[in-house]
Amino acid sequence: MLQVKRDFQLRKLSLSVANYGGHGLVIHRDSKENNPETPFKFAQKNLKKIESLLANFPGGHKQAALLPVLDLGQRQNRWLILYVIHEENI
């Protein structure tokens, strides 16, 4: 009985994400609302938040603020447009 339970647990570990509704490979397709030329500017209050976020990280580790900055862009626009991902002037 113990062997059967152990085998079942091992099989559960080997299930792939696709079995649970994973979408597989996700790629971006440009649209008129979401392409590299879609204009986006951070609001002044978000720029201040970004400055305070960047102040939390030492000089060589500013890239660690990437996810919080992307979150601000998504909250401002209600969804994350491609231009925010490629913004370099932060």
Automatic annotation (TrEMBL):
| Any one of the GO BP annotations | mitochondrial electron transport, NADH to ubiquinone
Q: Which Gene3D superfamilies match?
A: NADH-quinone oxidoreductase subunit E
Q: Which InterPro entries match?
A: NuoE_N (IPR041921)
Q: Which UniProt keywords apply?
A: Iron, Iron-sulfur, Metal-binding
Recorded GO molecular functions are: iron-sulfur cluster binding; metal ion binding; NADH dehydrogenase activity
Mind naming one GO cellular-component term on file for this protein?
mitochondrion
| PANTHER family the UniProt entry points to | NADH DEHYDROGENASE [UBIQUINONE] FLAVOPROTEIN 2, MITOCHONDRIAL (PTHR10371:SF3), NADH DEHYDROGENASE UBIQUINONE FLAVOPROTEIN 2, MITOCHONDRIAL (PTHR10371)
The name on file for this protein is Uncharacterized protein
